[in-house]
Specification:
Elements (H helix, E strand, L loop, with lengths): L1 E3 L11 H7 L3 E2 L2 E2 L26 E7 L9 H10 L10 H22 L6 H19 L6 E7 L6 H10 L9 E6 L9 H16 L9 H5 L3 E5 L6 H15 L11 E7 L3 H5 L4 H15 L6 E6 L12 H10 L5 E5 L7 H17 L6 E3 L7 H17 L1 E4 L12 H10 L13
Parallel strand pairs: 4-5, 4-6, 6-7, 8-9, 8-10, 10-11
Antiparallel strand pairs: 1-12, 2-3
Helix pairs in contact: 2-3, 4-13, 5-6, 6-14, 8-10, 8-13, 11-12
Bound molecules: FE2/S2 (inorganic) cluster (FES).
Pfam families: Ferrochelatase
Pathway: Porphyrin-containing compound metabolism; protoheme biosynthesis; protoheme from protoporphyrin-IX: step 1/1
Function: Catalyzes the ferrous insertion into protoporphyrin IX.
Length: 438
């Protein structure tokens, strides 16, 4: 279920009168009072619009955590990562502990990036996936074409701030309106990942486009700000499931036929601190939903487990840990194991180094004889890129602002930033609507 808004209205040049008329619109039955809703009707068509009848151009912004492209970028990447309390909550000492931990970890992590070729491939894959998806959308959704690909990373270049400024340079916002879709590249929602990216996007939107935060903006510029919608989760999209199933099947085919159905599938996702899980974060259940859907597609031919990797520090994290699980299985004689990265859409340090060079290497040292393998990441999979286009096309066509689920905060959330971000992206402005943002 989604929060809907007729996007045909977004690009329509409007008068103050039409703003009043439309201000009593409803979201899934919720009436949004005029002074509390975003006044969508006041947005002028973007000046860059170049096709009669088209509501484009449309910016498609891929959000992800990013990774250092070179070893020189590792320090900055880690310092941003450990400063983010949404991702790594370090309590009141975050500003002291964050820099300390990132400085101490930098030499070790630099070596890891050197070991996978000198940098993360996530930018290369993200830019490729976004560009290829936009090519498909230009054909399938001509009414919102041209679709322009952007990437906004939380901890590495291009950072959200840089991408937001690029959007403004490219003719979106600043009095010209225009539509942008924040498309999370984390299929399963976590407040640590998608939530953090949206908090950052909202922060820069306020700094660059809100008249209350940016007094240099003219009234016209403030009126014609970028109109955002969000694809905030897609854990069981059939195209995503199919892309995972294809890669798993290819890996299973590398095993002899007589053992193939006895290979244990280990779906591996990045772990979370238990403090985040116990706050009510939706990620564990959404990752489990992906795993179940993939297994259903594969006919439950193989036994499987969902396991969790990349735990940092001494506090309690969600388990069982991927590395321990592999070690235990191999020691017990179950050597045929396929590891499947299930919560990322391209290769990154956790697949190329942690799984390939640590977990699988250690398994071989215990006698796994090359029988612990990894399914390829989604990377340039045409099935996956088609799935992205299918998702985005339905979003653009359907007038979805975000999923219905996005308005609900974690039961244990006390963050004002989460609250304000959700009010903004769900289109509820300052409305104190308890039904959506408890
Ligand atoms: Fe989940 Fe704030 S921590 S909504």
């Amino acid at each position: 279920m989604s929060v809907q808004r007729p996007f045909q209205q977004l690009a329509s040049r409007a008068t103050a009168q039409s703003c009043v008329q439309r201000s009593q619109h409803s979201f899934q039955g919720l009436r949004i009072p005029q002074q509390q809703s975003r006044c969508l009707a006041s947005v002028a068509p973007p000046v860059t619009q170049n096709a009669t009848g088209s509501k484009g151009p449309t910016a498609m912004v891929f959000m992800n955590m990013g990774g250092p492209a070179t070893t020189d970028e590792v320090g900055g990447f880690l310092s941003r990562l450990f400063a983010d309390a949404d991702l790594i909550p370090l309590g009141p000492l975050q500003n002291y502990l964050g820099p300390l931990i990132s400085r101490r970890r930098t030499p070790k992590i630099k070596k890891q990036y050197a070991g996978i070729g000198g940098g993360s491939p996530i930018r290369k894959w993200s830019e490729y996936q976004a560009a290829e998806m936009c090519k498909i959308l230009d054909k399938t959704n001509p009414e919102t074409a041209p679709h322009k690909p952007y990437v906004a990373f939380r901890y590495a270049n291009p950072l959200t701030e840089e991408t937001y400024n690029k959007l403004l340079e490219d003719g979106f916002g600043k009095g010209r309106g225009g539509r942008a879709v924040a498309f999370t590249q984390y299929p399963q929602y976590s407040c640590s990942t998608t939530g953090s990216s949206l908090n950052e996007l909202w922060k820069w939107r306020q700094r660059l486009e809100s008249p209350t935060r940016n007094p240099d903006l003219s009234a016209a510029e403030a009126e014609g700000s970028i109109q955002w919608s969000v694809i905030d989760r897609w854990p069981t999209h059939p195209g995503l499931v199919e892309a995972f199933a294809e890669n798993i099947t290819k890996t299973l085919e590398t095993y002899p036929e007589d053992v193939r159905d006895n290979v244990v599938l280990l779906f591996s996702a990045h772990s979370l601190p238990m403090s985040v899980v116990n706050r009510g974060d939706p990620y564990p259940s959404e990752v489990a939903a992906t795993v179940w859907a993939v297994q259903q597609r594969l006919g439950f031919r193989n036994p499987y487990r969902l396991v969790w990797q990349s735990q940092v520090g001494p506090s309690a994290w969600l388990g069982a840990q991927t590395s321990d699980t592999v070690t235990n299985f191999v020691k017990k004689g179950q050597k045929d194991l396929v590891l499947i990265p299930i919560a990322f859409t391209s290769d990154h340090i956790e697949t190329l180094f942690e799984i390939d060079q640590e977990v699988i290497h250690e398994a071989d040292q215990l006698g796994a004889e090359g029988r612990v393998r990894r399914a390829e990441s989604l990377n340039g999979s045409p099935t996956f890129i088609k799935a992205l286009a299918d998702l985005a096309g339905a979003h653009l066509h359907g007038g979805e602002v975000c999923s219905r689920q996005m308005g609900l905060r974690c039961p244990g959330c006390t963050s004002e930033r989460c609250l304000e971000q959700k009010r903004f992206f769900t289109g509820l402005g300052q409305q104190k609507n308890k039904a959506l943002t408890l």
